[in-house]
């Protein structure tokens, strides 16, 4: 594996671009290949077996592109499949899971909210993590329908506002002071979420932490790229319009069946 090889990232759609942005900001010299499996979105409603199979398919695509490290930029895929991925492939994997720790450690009301997919909230990895915080009340909410609307480019639609209010208002009533976004799609909803939540409730996602961990692993393995001219490639297997819009048409998007 060479330093100039790309970082690979995959998600069940466009949401993992929120993770890609953090990595690209921290590591601007690194080439990246992003895989949006939008045809199969959302992963959150699929079985664990289906999620593992899709994650392996995505991994093999990125390995065929010579990826030196793979970021599973999807909470559902991380919590359901990363153990199997690490056992099956000889490449470093970095996962993303709800940032419960900083929320629980800093909560003054000892009550935090987690908005995530069904696949994440029902996973063994997530529920094991919850057990580490017995003194914190964790209000869990499945974000039914949110990923589909984001994939359709309907981030500011009336339907989105209705769903967010129905999910978030009970959390406010439960006295949360932190909201953890447990899906890489959800950071794109922060402007709408802020309109619903009182100002004292802080919103946390995992993007910066994943970027720091990516840098740490590349540094440990002496794989950091020092070249100045980096190349960013994006693949999608369904409707590139929304992905292009999210990227503000700054990068080429390749539509490819995989």
Task: Describe what you observe in this structure.
The chain has helices spanning 17-26, 48-64, 75-88, 100-106, 118-121, 124-130, 146-151, 158-173, 190-196, 207-220, 240-246; strands at residues 7-11, 32-36, 69-72, 93-94, 111-116, 137-142, 178-182, 202-204, 232-236, 253-255. The protein is 42% helix and 17% strand. The protein is globular and about 50 Å long. The protein is α/β, with parallel strands linked by helices and 258 residues long. Helix 1 packs across helix 10 (207-220) and helix 2 crosses helix 3. Helix 3 links the parallel strand 3 and strand 4 (93-94). A 6-stranded parallel beta sheet has the order 4-3-1-2-9-10, with helices on both faces. The mean pLDDT is 96. The relative contact order is 0.20.
Strand order of the largest sheet: 4-3-1-2-9-10
Gross morphology is globular
Query: What would the average pLDDT be, to the nearest integer?
Result: 96
- Helix fraction, binned, reads 40-55%
Biggest sheet, open or closed, and with what strands and sense?
Answer: 6 strands, parallel
Could you give the distance between the termini? 24 Å
Strand-residue proportion: 15-25%
Count all strands and give the number.
Answer: 10
| Poorly predicted residue ranges | none
Radius of gyration, rounded? 18 Å
Count of helical stretches: 11
Task: Give the ordered list of helices and strands.
Answer: EHEHEHEHEHHEHHEHEHEHE
What structural class do helix, strand and pairing data support? alpha/beta
